[in-house]
Amino acid sequence: MVETSLRQLGLSDNEVRIYLSLLPLKKAASSTLGYRTNLERNTARYTCQQLARKGLIAETQEGNTLFYNPEPPDKILFMLENAKKEILQKEEQANRIIGHLRTMADPKTALPKVRFFEGEDGIIEMFEDVLKENKPLYGAVTIPKDLPQKILDYKEKIYYPKKKELFFPTWGIFSDDKQTKGLQKLDHQVNRQSLLVPADEFPIEICYHIYGNKVSFYSYAPGDMTGVIIENEHIRKTQMSIFKMAWEFAKTLPENKKKRDISLEVL
Predict the structure, then answer these.
(1) How far apart are CA 191 and CA 136, in angstroms?
(2) Which DSSP symbol is given to 265?
């Protein structure tokens, strides 16, 4: 029963034989253990080395001879803990590549590529991605009263000047409040068409962009300055459909009376 249990715990037949032979001896050379277990000397030495790596026996040298001492049997639990750690590590490695393997097996079922961002630098990095993509831009925007100065400076000194240079077309739905409404003044400079929606009836608490094959969501809220970029064709198409519905509805609102002839071009 003991031998069977040790095998089930991961020991080989030779390891079981050597380990059980060493326990009552307390100390022995590999040659002695080989003699007692009918194993060749080299095989016995190798088996002892394997048991030492697993932490079940200890190796000491006296003169030119290596001796082995059994560790307390409780070390079997230590061996299992190491085995569990190895399994968890392998599971993590598998999770990191499973999406790529699925894509290789069936490219039509590719999982979305998702990136997360945090803090002022993270939000700025998301805007940099919009500029880098340089594709038509669609989205909903709100600007809080207490937008960090670092982001304000970035938009004024880097984002908008670069956007004017690239001049890719943009369609935006803005929250009709004092902070956000001011963005419309820049529309003609950055090749943008925008509509307003009442902030009380249709509160926009986060911002989102649709560009290229990506959809991004980001929050300016204090204590929750986070964002995510999702790269997936199906998600982009669905979000684009929702934006088109919102755009057509926004055109009917009194705030946008002069802009009802603006068409939304999906490029």
Answers:
(1) 10
(2) P
